[in-house]
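Input/output pair, single chain:
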Amino acid sequence: DDDDDDEIGEMMRMFIGTIEMYREQATLLDPLLEALITPLAVDVLEREARRGGERERRCLYSSRRLGRACVILDALSSVRGWKTCIRFYPNAARDLEPAVKLLAWTSTEASAVGWETRRVVLSWISMLALTPFDLVSIDSATSVTVASEHDAVPLVVRELVTECKRCLGDSGATRDAAAATLAKLLTRPDMSEALISFFDWAGRALKGLISNDRQELSFLIPGVLRALAGIYKSGARDVLLAHAERTWRDASETFQSEYAKSSTLVRQLSVKLATRVGLVFMKPRVVSWRYNRGSRCLQDNLISAENKPNSDGAAANSQTSTSIASGLASQGDSDFVDEAVDDIVEMFLVGLRDTDTVVRWSAAKGLGRIASRLPRDFGDEVVGAVLECLSITESDSTWHGACLALAELARRGLLLPSRLAETIPLVVEALTYDVRRGPHSVGSHVRDAACYVCWAFARAYAPDVFAPYVNEIAPTLLMVACFDREVNCRRAASAAFQESVGRLGQFPHGIDIVTVADYFSLGAKVHASLTVAPYICRFDEYRVPMLEHILDAKLTHWERSSRSLATQTVSVLGDLDPHWILDIGLPTVLDRACHSDLPTRHGAILAIGEMILVANRANLTPCLEARKKSRRRHTKHPASQVVSRKRKRAHARGNL
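Output:
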């Protein structure tokens, strides 16, 4: 009755609320998953699937019971992950046909079930579709003799594909589950006919020939793209190669269509599908020209100097064994590249300039994966094209996409050491990228991506290869870690610095700094500037670069709070080097005191007061007076430019 329904609903909400509390550490649920999932999946889901003949008589009861069970299963799977939870579902081959009938029933109006039920049933079928038996032997409706080519596809498969196509047009999570189910079903060795039929249907759907309803197509096209991407991920290369050219044309046209212009998801999935198709065009291999670091043991990077020769020998042996394991000679890479790969790389370069982060991220990953199979000359051209994106004339989105691409290329050893000399200055510039746009500025995502590049460098290169660039990267990372106005950038820079200290072992005073500049100490901007930065500035290698950064970037910042914090930082850091304050800092801010830009003038005036106090605390007041007199002697103006105060006042009264 209604009272029981309310009580059960309240209990379900309490249970789901408890499960949600484990989202941050979902692995804690692992000991309980079997006890929680098995009763629901076996006693409810499997039993209801086998009650196909009774479902019309027990429709209301089945809907409620099945719906409640699937809501709980969906909550568990969304917290712990579908791949983990689906292992506890029934996996008998005889359940496939009843499960497909159950899926068809959930799509009817009489079922009155929610999207959670369809999602759970689709996920269950995606596992049942992997049964090792021929699906013809499972289908009860298949006759002994096959009448036509259409009947070569079992009836249960046709019904399942039809239901999945319908779910691809949903706007919720059911669409993703249907795409995953189709990918696992159609990549089976016995599903070649169904695969060809689906490719034909998908091509018409991407061209908008399936429906005239624009809103319906806006949901269907992402589902079709996701299903195709899943097929090209799971399928065999020799089977998919015959369809790759057609699929690439469909993906390229979709990427340039009107739907892509108004949908971020369509652009992202188009790039993702292009990546999978591009990998099919090239044979799987590990190119011999990529940079191979060899041994990556933290202990080897931090050993003492007297044991270094032995370590070098061990690293050389490890690198040699890795090279032998790859089984590829330097002349073994084929120079043949399909013409479609050129167009795919061009799509990625366009994607790096996209206005949405997810599209740029997909393009960067695709560029790295495709470049890992290209010949050396072609791969070097890709690196050069990415470096050209880091130009002052490019937008912040392009800088962000290029940084992501550089990190992906470096992680895979495709950014060779010979390219580091021109790459490092661009990365340093990206670490301090901040462009003012009216009352605000853009660039935090660029700085965050640049920290990711530095993190990738630390994992990709040997210490001796990266040693010439340590003095450029280390101070800049600490500037970002201490003075950046965004907490994610400060923490990202700290993580990159920590990774560099551990893997490269050549950053000056790295261990001492890492123990102070950690994830938590850099959470508050004031604490990072006034507590962590003074500790770092105790080391000579970092003091002057950080003072120069405060002087040039933070005292002229557009944000008032950042300028005020910068003046406090000048007061604290100035005590560590008062002579620098007197020789360089004070003359610079005095020249800015009459600047036409208001933020620059405001920061200079605030800094003048703090620098005078620093000079006073350091007993440098006599030197300050001498410099003041010298400045007066050297700043005399020509007589033609001198106007007495009395004459100015008279001129002003005349104007009034």
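Confidence is low (pLDDT under 50) at residues 55-61, 144-150, 308-332, 636-656. The beta strands are 435-437, 440-442.
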